[in-house]
Amino acid sequence: MKKNIFVKFIAAVITAVLLAGALAGCGKGEGGTASSFRTLDEIKESGKIVIGVFSDKAPFGYVDEYVEYQGYDVYFAERIAKDLGVAVEYVSTDPASRVEYVATGKVDIILANFTVTEERAKQVDFALPYMKVMLGVVSPDESLITDVEQLNGKNLIVVKGTTAETYFEKNHPDINLQKYDEYADAYNALLDGRGDAFSTDNTEVLAWALSNKGFTVGIDALGNADTIAPAVQKGNTTLLTWLNDEIKALGEEQFFHADYEATLSEVYGEAADPDSLVVEGGNID
Amino acid sequence: MQDSGINVLFMGSNFLRLLEGLCVTLRISLISVILSIPLGIFFGIFMTLKNPFSKAISRIYLEFIRIMPQLVLLFIAYFGVTRAFGWSLSADVSATVVFVLWGTAEMGDLVRGALISIPKNQYDSAFALGMTKAQTFIHIVVPQTFRRLIPLTINLTTRMIKTTSLVVLIGITEVLKVGKQIIDANRFEYPSAALWVYGVIFLLYFLACWPISVMAKKLEKRWG
Predict the structure, then answer these.
(1) Which domain holds residue B196?
(2) Which of A94, A112, B22, B60 is most buried (CB neighbours < 10 A)?
(3) Domains in chain A, please, with CATH?
(4) Closest residue in chain B to residue A91, using alpha carbons only
(5) What is the pLDDT of residues A106-165, one digit of tens each?
(6) Which one of A36, A67, A72, A183 makes the best mutation probe of the B interface by having the most chain B beta carbons within 10 Å?
(7) Measured distance CA(A230)–CA(A76) in Å, rounded
(8) Domain with B141 in it: what CATH number?
(9) For residue range B36-60, what is the model confidence (pLDDT) as tens digits?
(10) Which site among B170, B184, B222 would you substitute to test the A interface, given the most A Cβ atoms closer than 10 Å to its Cβ?
């Protein structure tokens, strides 16, 4: 009788291995591509460009209820594919893995709200910018803050690790900073009146103010402009040159203003000035 | 404008997408569990060998996998391998490899623990009855070890199902990521959608893990 258990055990092992094989078989078996970058000609030949975008960062890159990618970055990606005459395949990326994706050639281009920094420029090649981000300050209508000087001695809410935190610490030491770990906590603090105003990227506060009545973005462009640009793998000059030419050419037809109208305007509303976000032809004023 | 977030679940194919996400989660975790259990059993037996060389190897392997966060292992398998050797593994394959390596190490240690917990007098009695080493192992040790292993294995299985949510970082869209996508796409119109979406995800995880626990209880009763 004891022998039975041993036989059953062997049978279980064999079944397990077979079942695993069967399950693996029904998975999507997408093969690996070449490890290093693909040149412009190789992309055109393959008939498909692989672009890394965000899938959960509305309104820049997100997936709608019909499982279609949408957003400001995606609108541009669609145009790139159209002008190259190839199909587009989107890869969903996260902030932490963007550099790795492009550095290992798993995507041809990263178009995921990728801010240009010196640190990143060592690992990837940035094309010309197509957007810029500055700081914005949102406050209640009854005591609206329209100038940084008004904040002296008051409580300003910031989120830890954002550019807003470093900017105010360095340039405005007289302002008391209230620091929170999460955006949700920071917004709740503003709603409760624990702080007088909240500062972070202007895109973020503009969108928030629109859906929260009684709050307005009094300052919509503060600090140095950070630029946002597509990135390709280091050394992929053919693709980089093509992208730069494309961005310059699109500037002439005011493509990114059209992109703004199609994707961002409903989120930021009348209050926002497209020129405080959009960069045409790679020229930052 | 601030509508009830429950509507979000029924917009377009949202609910179906969540189910598909759950399928991805279960596919990766169950393949890994199914491969890890037999491999872990062999590894566990290997660990109890009294050979210093095999002991050193298994020690290094176990500690390496244990100390490294699974996230780091995923990055190494997906991006690191491409950088170092130029082999581009697909995200599914990298995830499965990492979870099998991890599951084998954990399962191996459970098996080792269960094996050495069999009291020495069980062996002595078996030898006294005239059984050979092999017979003792098959008839005395294995059945008792098995019984001890069931609850531990179930624990490991449910842990693996939940840990697979890390695979989003290498671009696999599993149930949690689908949830985030749905919440984010509706965050301006339906700010309260998060509660509903996470509620459904909680239920889905529960429905995935609960039958496994029930099955384990039945097995425990039958063999206990």
Answers:
(1) 5-223
(2) A112
(3) 40-130+229-272 (3.40.190.10), 134-225 (3.40.190.10)
(4) B171
(5) 999 999 999 898 889 999 999 999 999 899 999 999 999 999 999 999 999 998 888 889
(6) A67
(7) 10
(8) 1.10.3720.10
(9) 999 999 999 999 998 999 999 999 9
(10) B184
